[in-house]
Specification:
Layout lengths: L2 E5 L20 E3 L4 E9 L2 E3 L2 E8 L2 E4 L4 E13 L2 E3 L2 E9 L4 E3 L2 E3 L2 E3 L4 E3 L2 E3 L11 H6 L12 H10 L3
Parallel strand pairs: 1-3, 2-4, 3-5, 4-6, 5-7, 6-7, 7-8, 7-9, 8-10, 9-11, 9-12, 10-13, 11-14
């Protein structure tokens, strides 16, 4: 896989108005008809509106557009999913899954927002105190099983019979 570093292009917005998802109009954009495979490193804000396969890293905001199809692991500060993402996500600040968004993979986040209709299949770990540098992996959990001692619970049926037996 090739590595591609992309920086914000600084192009003016084509629709003349603010972005409805709240992102900067001067963002790196992978257009709807485009397909890219590899490692995408974005300095600042980025938008993926087309198809992408590989890895995405950003020190700013990432938007996965409503018609996007992404099969990648994504790492960024604030990530907004409005399209389909298959892969693991690490959002150091916030992960937002919009009503058209779908995440199929695990997520480690600082905060989580899921709008009605948003879909997630996987495990979400929320760390309000801050996302750790190395995300907690399932293998660590399986390596150290938790042992819970069991003890017999009292039988409430016997108490009920004894209580009602006094009346009959």
């Amino acid at each position: 896989m090739s590595e591609i570093a992309v920086e914000a292009a600084g192009l003016p917005s084509t629709n003349g108005g603010p972005d409805p998802l709240g992102l900067d109009p001067k963002a790196t954009v992978l257009a709807r008809e485009d397909f890219l495979s590899g490692k995408l490193v974005v300095k600042g804000t980025g938008q993926v509106l087309g198809n992408f396969s590989g890895q995405i890293e950003s020190d700013g905001d990432i938007l996965i557009g409503p018609e996007a199809h992404v099969e990648a692991d994504i790492r960024g500060a604030r990530i907004t999913l409005a399209g389909l993402v298959r892969g693991n996500v690490i959002a150091t600040s916030r992960l937002k899954i919009t009503s058209s968004g779908r995440l199929e993979g695990d997520a480690t986040v600082g905060a989580l927002i899921v709008q009605e209709g948003g879909v997630h299949y996987g495990v979400i770990r929320v760390h309000p105190e801050g996302v750790p540098e190395t995300p907690h992996e399932r293998t660590q959990v399986q390596a150290q099983p938790v042992v819970v001692p069991l003890r017999a619970a009292p039988n409430p049926v016997g108490r009920v019979r004894k209580f009602w037996g006094e009346f009959f």
